[in-house]
Amino acid sequence: MKKINIISPGRTCLFGDHQDYLGLPVIACAIDKYITLNAIENTTTLFRIKLPDIGEEREILIDEKFEQIEHRDYFASSLRVLRRYGCVPDQGYDIEIKGDLPLNAGVSSSSALIVAWIRFLLKAFGASQEVTQILVSRIAYEAEVLEHNEPGGLMDQYSIGLGGVLFIDTSEETSYERIQNTVPGLIVGESGVKKETIGTLGDRKEKALKAIEYVTLKKPDFSIKSTLLEEYDEYEKYIPSDLKPYFFAALKNHSITLEALQELKKEVPDMKYLGDLMNQHHHILKDILKITVPVIDKMVDSAIQAGAYGVKIVGSGGGGSIVTIAPKDKEQQVVEAIKREGKTAYVVNVDSGARVL
Question: Average pLDDT for residues 273-279, to the nearest whole number?
Answer without folding.
Answer: 98
